[in-house]
Structure formats: structure tokens, C-alpha cells
Design a protein that fits this description.
The chain is of the alpha/beta class. The chain folds into 2 domains: 154 residues, GTP1/OBG domain (Spo0b-associated Gtp-binding Protein, Chain: A); 154 residues, Rossmann fold (3-Layer(aba) Sandwich), CATH 3.40.50. It contains 4 helices and 14 strands. The strands form 3 sheets. It has a 6-stranded mixed beta sheet with strand order 10-11-9-12-13-14, with helices on both faces. A 5-stranded mixed beta sheet has the order 3-1-8-5-6, with no helix packed on it. Strands 4-2-7 form a 3-stranded mixed beta sheet, with no helix packed on it. A hairpin with a 2-residue loop joins strand 10 and strand 11. It is rod-shaped.
Length: 314
């Protein structure tokens, strides 16, 4: 199951307290203070990974804490620093703060970002000795680590985004041209989550994402569109499928374009290939609708031409 949004609470480790201790050993006169410093608290770090494709790990467990630093000890022994907490997220995850401002966009494999800094360890009483204070009992407690509420949002990274009205043939097309095997049926909203597939054409390879659930009003939350429109924002090319068997292909096309505009006007500036699909189910091609290529994913007609055009545009 694709989980593409999560809210979590993170806390970096607290620094360990400094120690109050005095050296008392036989035959050593005036041993003096020897309290060690506390260790630093662990940091919280995000790391992007291509081995993950969902935020599922953060859908149930909501609180994450790095290890606290250990307290200082006698004989000027420093406390161990706390272990850093590394939280892995899929490549394409955007991190927002509690004011919904973008903190970082995790766009590359192995990319790391320090999101919360651990508290500094406190000073032991050894630091407070002086000529006028030979028996210091002062020490500094460890500082608290940073604590934050975070929102994670996954935007799939694909070269090509497939859009269109429900049942326009997107799932069939992506199953034919890629290694993706989505659910296919003869009714709307078959696809309930984005399907990502890798396509190989001649000497080129590119990722294709099927964006499900777009209908009129998707940008306002109708259907499934609002939940998945974010995944099209990273694509380089939009392949817009229009069902040739529709009563009004031109109207279907305009409805989808309007939803893209309402969600993000910049989407209309992306290169678009308009594809008339399911031409095997109609007696003749409609003449009142302008398109770039007509295909049938079921019979394979013009699929190579479509892939060649996508590869050329990329």
C-alpha cells in the first residue's frame, strides 16, 4: 500500500549532565575536582533511499527519539555521546515544518539532512576550579535536544506522468509498456494508488507514473485526484490519454487540463503529448478533436510510435 503522507514528532537526544566529583586517593594530597563532562545527545537525520517507495513506516509509529548522551563521571571521564537516529525515507520525500514550510526536498539516493541537533553535554566541576574556588560544586546540566513536529510528503519521481479521466486506459497502457502490473477492469477508479513502472525503448529507459482518480473537481478534493495530483509535479512530460469511446472527448480533455491548472498552473507549462486511446473500439477516428497520436494498448497499435515520441521529447 502506498502511504504518501505522514505526520511525525522527532526529538534529538539530550546532552548528559556534567559530574561533580573530587579526587581522593591515598598518598595524593589536595586531589581537587575531577568531574567529567556529559556526552552530547544524538542527532536526528533524514536519509533518502531508492529501496523505499512509501512512507508506510511512519503511518503508525509517530514518535522518534535519538539517544541521550551519558552523564560525566569521576576521574574526568566524559560521558558517551548518544547515537544518531537515521530515519530513511523514499527518494522524492519533501519535509515540512509545523508551519507547512518546506525544510528539505530529498531528491537523491543517499542524500542526508540533519533535521534536529542533539543537546550539548554539560560541564563537570573540573571546569569551575580556580585559585579562589578550590572545591567547586558547580556543574552544568546537559542541554535539551531539538524537538519538532514534521510533515512528510512523498512526490514520486517519474519522467512521464499519465493523466486522463477514469477508465481512459492508463492502467492498460502502463502494463503494456512497462514492468508495472496494476489492477485493470472495465469500470472507473480501478487504480486506487499511483503505479510506477520502468520503460525501456531501444537504448533509452524512463520511469512512467499512472496518476489515478482525476475527475472534474479533483483539485477541490473530489474523487481521488487531490490525493495524487502531487505526484505529477516532478514529471518532465505529461501523456494525456483521452478515451476515444467517450461521448465528448474534447470535454474530457478540457476537464483534466482545468484540474491541473487549478492544482498548479505551472503544470500547464510542461510538455504534453495528447493520446487518443482505445481506437480499436470505435469505427472511425473523431475529426473534431485534435490529438498527437491515436493508440490501442489492447492491440498494440501505434504503441511504438508513442514510445518513440516520448523518448524523443525526453
Amino acid at each position: 500500500m502506498l502511504v504518501d503522507e505522514a505526520r511525525i514528532h522527532i526529538r534529538a537526544g539530550k546532552g548528559g549532565d556534567g559530574a561533580v566529583s573530587f579526587r581522593r586517593e591515598k598518598f595524593i594530597d589536595k586531589g581537587g575536582p575531577d568531574g567529567g563532562d556529559g556526552g552530547d545527545g544524538g542527532d536526528v537525520i533524514f536519509e533518502a533511499s531508492t529501496s523505499l517507495n512509501s512512507l508506510f513506516n511512519y503511518s503508525r509509529l509517530k514518535h522518534f527519539e535519538a539517544e541521550d548522551g551519558n552523564n560525566g563521571a569521576k576521574k574526568k571521564q566524559y560521558g558517551h555521546s548518544g547515537e544518531d537516529l537515521v530515519l530513511q525515507v523514499p527518494v522524492g520525500t519533501v519535509v515540512y515544518d509545523d508551519e507547512n514550510k518546506t525544510v528539505v526536498d530529498m531528491t537523491a539516493d543517499k542524500m542526508r539532512y540533519l533535521i534536529a541537533v542533539g543537546g550539548k553535554g554539560g560541564l563537570g566541576n573540573d571546569h569551575f576550579k580556580s585559585s579562589t574556588n578550590r572545591v567547586p560544586r558547580e556543574f552544568k546540566p546537559g542541554e535539551a535536544g531539538e524537538e519538532k513536529d514534521i510533515r512528510l510528503e512523498l512526490k514520486l519521481i517519474a519522467d512521464v506522468g499519465l493523466v486522463g479521466m477514469p477508465n481512459a486506459g492508463k492502467s492498460t497502457l502502463i502494463s503494456v509498456i512497462s514492468n508495472s502490473k496494476p489492477k485493470i477492469a472495465d469500470y472507473p477508479f480501478t487504480t486506487l494508488e499511483p503505479a510506477l513502472g520502468m520503460v525501456r525503448y531501444q537504448d533509452k529507459a524512463f520511469a512512467v507514473c499512472d496518476i489515478p482518480g482525476l475527475i472534474e473537481g479533483a483539485a477541490e478534493g473530489k474523487g481521488l485526484g487531490l490525493k495524487f495530483l502531487r505526484h505529477i509535479s516532478r514529471t518532465k512530460i505529461i501523456v494525456h490519454l483521452v478515451d476515444a469511446t467517450s461521448a465528448d472527448p474534447k470535454s474530457d480533455y478540457k476537464k483534466i487540463r482545468n484540474e491541473l491548472k487549478k492544482f498548479d498552473p505551472e503544470l500547464l507549462n510542461k510538455k504534453e503529448i495528447t493520446v487518443l486511446s482505445k481506437i480499436d473500439l470505435i469505427p472511425q477516428i473523431p475529426k473534431d478533436f485534435k490529438f498527437d497520436i491515436a493508440i490501442s494498448a489492447a492491440t498494440g497499435k501505434n504503441i511504438d510510435k508513442l514510445l518513440a515520441q516520448i523518448a524523443s521529447e525526453l
